[in-house]
Amino acid sequence: MILPAAILFALFIFWPFLRALWLSLHSWDGFGAPSWIGLLNYQRLLDDHIFLGALENNAIFVVGVVVLKNVLGLGVALLLDQAVRGRAFFRAAAFLPVTMSFVAVGLLWAWIYNPVFGLLNAALETVGLESWTRAWLGDAQIALYAIILVDVWKWLGFHAVIYLAGLQTIPPELYESAIADGAGRWQRFWHVTLPLLTPIIFINTILILSGAFVRNFDLVYVMTRGGPNHATEVVLTDMIREAFLGGSMGYASAMGFALFLIVGALSAGLVLLMRQRSLDV
Amino acid sequence: MAGNEPLPGDPARGGRATATPIVHGLTRPLPVTIAVYVGLGVVTLQTVYPLVWVLFGSLKDKSGLINNIWGPPTELHLENYAQAWTIAEMGTRILNSVIVTALALVIVVIAATPCAYAVARLRFPGRSVVLAIAVAAMLIPPQVMAIPLFMVARDLGLINSLVGVSFIYAATGLPLSIFILRGFFLTLPDDLEDAARIDGANRLTILFEVMLPLVRPGVALVLIFEFIEVWNDFFLAFLLLRQPSVQTIPLGLVNFFQQYDSLWNLYFAALAMTTLPIVAVFVVMQRQFIAGLTAGAVKG
Lengths: 281, 300
Description:
The structure holds 2 protein chains of 2 kinds. Chain A is mainly α. Chain A is built from 13 helices and 2 strands. Chain A is globular and about 75 Å long. By secondary structure, chain B is mostly helical. Chain B has helices at 30-58, 62-67, 79-87, 90-121, 127-138, 146-155, 162-186, 190-198, 203-211, 216-232, 235-240, 249-259, 264-284, 286-299. Classes of the chains: A mainly alpha, B mainly alpha.
């Protein structure tokens, strides 16, 4: 019964995984015979300032989206949890970008940031902030943060909905007794809502982390291709360029495998942390 | 848009009646109410307006796009759609996306269901190993294996093959699908299976005729996840579908914009016709969709 799954898995997950490891220990241009070079590829990674820059950008990306998606997601969930007219409409609206592809979102925002016909500069001019207008994706100081915001925009509704589900499992009696004890709005949030949401915060953080290292290729490729001057380079865009333009298959495999080790170590750490706090999620 | 009654099949909603007029049993002071509506207004505006802007832009001509940036079009240039459809070869791209997505969904359900059933309900040596591998594989993003995956596909002659790529999509979706379906199989009572076995049904009959209909919500969840994944995927398509004739929608969009310079209004039309219908379908189905996603996340 597990045979069909096992064949698919072995062929397209397990075998490529082993080959990635094997290739990363070789020098190979994609055509001739790979030659064994041991850990030289990994050593080269440590001196490659483009790769290190990409790794740093990845780290900024991860911290940025983990903080923003959690904080804003919870904020939006609290708004959506209020009893208001048209609540279903507001929920659907908040969720819209989740259904769009990264390519569509990336193109849309590349146009919003466009200096000629972009919505953002037009909006800034309308409210009298002409001095703030700029080529958002052409500015090496800003481009990475501009892309991070786009990723947050796409996923905000998704994380808000998960927080909303969490908020709705909190028994109302707890709020009633907190009110009876004289707790104000903020006190109720800090002492009732937030502690009870801890498992949901973990779930959201895992979901965000699992995407944050590798799901940014599409956005970066579509919006800036890693430019200007590698300012928005992430590991995957660097890897794909090395492999298919630079022809260094072995070196690119080492990049992929290094990324896998980092993601794996972080996931394992997070799972251990959850076990320790005995959160069964 | 949906009403406010509890979502069917959403366990999270059971605890509290959603029709409660005032939150947490407290009357809300007016400034708070105003702040809530302003906040919701901002959230709605920043998601809806960019999409409306795409729709507006798709109906403008080029000068309208540059001179009247954020307003509605003054005259309707519907011919943008016809031109974008032809130049970007949208018909072919949509057909390719439909073929790849449909095949991948069928393959993943056929492969994942028996495996999830076996892991959940049969006792065999190595059962926990299969489960551990599935969980571990969920943490390996297929993207980091891009290069060997490309080589395996090349060795098997699957580059530029829609069918071949469907199998690869199915494989990458397998771990999560097995995990989700296993959760649903675990909730079924043993009696059903025992009764069917006494009636002389074999394992496969039990699986497909007795058990499968009972885990339909799980299959639906797998289909939703996989649909979003495959239909929207750019990375694997970019890697494996190199010929224009087999490219899917996301790849076609990117190529269209790179190949033809500054046909801005046509870009907007191409994005509008490939994105807005899907968005509309999700708006109509959003209750089931959101319920499925949250049930999955809270369960998983």
